[in-house]
Amino acid sequence: MSKNIVEMHQITKAFPGVLALDSVDFNCMQGEVHALVGENGAGKSTLMKILAGAYRPDSGRIILRGNDIAFHSPREAQRHGISIIYQEFNLIPDLSVAENIFLGREPQKRMGFIDNTSLSEKAQSLLEDLGVAIDLGMRVSELGVAQQQMIEIAKALSLNADIIMMDEPSAVVSGKELESLFRIIRTLKANKKAIIYISHRIDEIFQIADRATVLKDGKLVGTVQTSDVDKPKVVSMMVGRSLSETFPQRKKLKQKQEVLALKNVSREGFLKDISFNVHKGEILGIAGLVGAGRSELARAIFGADPIDMGEIILKEKIIKKSSPKNSIVSGIGFVTENRAHDGLIHSLSLRKNLTLAILERVKKWFYIRDRYEKEISKQSVDQFKIITPSIEQEVRYLSGGNQQKVILAKWININLSLLILDEPTRGIDVGTKSEVYTLMRRLADQGTAIIMISSELPEIIGMSDRILVMHDGEIMGVVSPDKATEEGILMMATGQKRTINKAEG
Amino acid sequence: MQVAVSKRLQRSPQHIRSLFERFGIYIFLAILIVTASLVSPNFLKPQNLKDILNQSAALGMVAIGQTFVILIGGGGLDLSVASVMSTVAVIMAHNTEGQNSLFIPVMGVCLLFGIIVGFINGTLITKRKVQPFMATLGMMIIVQGIRFLYTKGMPKGEFPPIQRYLATGDIGSVPTSIISLAVMVIIALFVLRKTTFGRKVYAIGGNVNTARLCGYNIDFTIISVYMISGFMASIAGLYLAGWIGISDNWVGKGYELDSIAAVVMGGTTFEGGRGGVLGTIVGVLIVMMLYNIVLLLGMPVQMQFVVKGVVIILATSFYASFRRTQT
């Protein structure tokens, strides 16, 4: 057995409010394909970014070719032969293939002019080594995603990388393209490169990887030889048992009163023939992998994105012209997955954020009733236990968990009949998490219908009254939480199993 | 545990930064006043101070409109204001020929003209997705062309005495122009701080995605702020023309950049969502005082540009150094 080219010992990394990595060990050998697996948020990307020099670990050692090392920048890591290929490619669309491969390192003639002949030759030989035929003169923008990925790999090789990390390469390619990616990975392997392959798709790992390291919640679950284990074993490692998370008690719904129904809703490229309904007082969980169309579904219901076909029916009325404004008027609230992007207005105070969606109610004629606004804000702060020195504090100074509470409070202040929550507990600490759970259940008990999108399976199973599983823009099935297992949901979410029964309450 | 501690440590300097960011401009104004009174004994004379205020009126009015436009974010700014100012001035002179009786109706036409220019700016920006810089630059050139066609290069006529009085007269010992500006500042403060419209302006400037999800009519609000800017430019044009008193093709020349400089020095950021009218007025006073000091010291007028340029860069780098470490 060859020796480790890189070893990472006891790597720990914390971000405000989250421990992203907790004493993780990882190593990789020359000529090995090592898969790094785990659910979303398990810490895979953080670990790789540390190795690539993009983050610095809080503690732990990195040993490269037998030497202790600490990278201060991605460039430094690159010089040591470590390359990473992100899901988002680092290519310049308007430059040619050859120019992209050697960007910033173009062979030069005298006077600093670029030596185009030598540039093409070098690029050509790199691509030949990989066994890919791409016209060097083409602009990158004219190429497909799979070919762009090849160019990224060629770029890594041109840097003499001998450790190549690929962050979820199969998120962008599939089918035949994935096969040719695998072929290239095998070529690289034969050339003694170390490949670190990040993925949460079990099938691929057994196809391509020699070993797999499983992470969960920032902790190392274990490293296994893929030849020694089977798929269910890896799935159960990924899922694990969650840390004593307690979810509030469900109440039995007395009568089913439909709040929202979707009939054959489609949107080209995102949603395929979606039908389901939600009842008063119910929490409907939507599970699925990133890119399954869950957020797009939420945006469609809220009227933030258009739909091509189908009907959305709210309280027995077909919504004709859906827009965020109309949704708010009819009592739909929407907590998006990305707090920083569209959840809050960070330059405004807590008070002003809390009334963003209810200005119509706070105003008299055209001016804002200050006293009333302050009253509402103070109530929200008390009710949600938002920790802040004052309601005039700008929200950017609040912690992630408190910001999430502000967003929830903002929506609950409207006359809420349906609340859509997209990843409501992402990036917030355990304590606040359970507060959010309690709050959700209390809302549901008060009669609000809740749609909760989540990538955390324990959360989905623990909180939902019904679970809807999506894959590739389609509903794969509906499961009841007392019969659901994380393995079962994952099988549906990865498209390996489908229950035919349509979603009906 | 460690995380929580380090966060608390970071917190207090952030607040000091935020204080500096908010009040730095006032400190700067104070320093400028003290320096000015030390270098020139004439600076603090009542007549000189009154002149500064009088001259600040028109720039202040344009800058109020400009504040709305920059607050809305998305690269918002209005380069067409100076063109509008000159154009309403010649419209007024040509049509009233100095008669008081025609002042009100022609003023109506002038204000309408400014509002229409603003409407076109706003519509181009929201509906056609033209960058604010290019849209308002285009309108600036178009309005200029229209003005030359209209005056055939030879502006004529005179301004009505009412207009002259509003721009140069006094009530008691306070200039009417300053009273007018004060009224407009109060109205602008009310609109920005107390109305739902003002709240929406800050919200859209702060984060347009959040604002959209809160159901705000983004396009309507953006078009409105450009209309406000056009409207304020017309008023400012009339005041400035009344102050100068001669019908001229270039009334307000340079005010587009001066007003932007005043707004940004006053703490309103180009990213939008932060700042306000009071800072802008301080920015205007700073610009005007700089002009004044250069004159008092008997330096060549051209020196004004050098000094102003330096101060703009100093002020902006001052803000940048306090904002740098914030997320």
Description:
- The complex is a heterodimer of chains A (505) and B (327).
- Chain A has helices at 44-51, 74-79, 97-101, 116-130, 145-158, 175-190, 202-208, 231-239, 294-302, 324-329, 339-342, 350-354, 359-362, 370-384, 400-412, 430-445, 457-463, 486-493; strands at residues 4-15, 18-29, 33-37, 59-64, 67-69, 82-85, 163-167, 194-199, 211-216, 219-225, 258-267, 271-279, 283-288, 309-314, 317-318, 332-335, 363-364, 367-368, 418-422, 449-453, 466-471, 474-479.
- Chain A is an alpha/beta fold and 505 residues long.
- In chain A, the strands form five sheets. A six-stranded mixed beta sheet of chain A has the order 6-7-8-3-9-10, with helices on both faces.
- In chain A, α4 crosses α5.
- Chain A is globular, with a radius of gyration of 25 Å.
- The mean pLDDT of chain A is 88.
- Chain B has 13 helices and two strands, in the order ααααααββααααααα.
- A two-stranded antiparallel ribbon of chain B has the order 1-2.
- The radius of gyration of chain B is 21 Å and the shape is globular.
- The relative contact order of chain B is 0.19.
- The A-B interface holds A 14, 16-17, 302, 304, 323-329, 334, 336, 341-348, 352, 356-357, 359-360, 362-363, 366-368, 370, 394, 396-397, 399 and B 2-3, 7, 11, 14, 18, 190, 194-197, 199-200, 202-203, 205-207, 209-217, 273-274, 326-327.
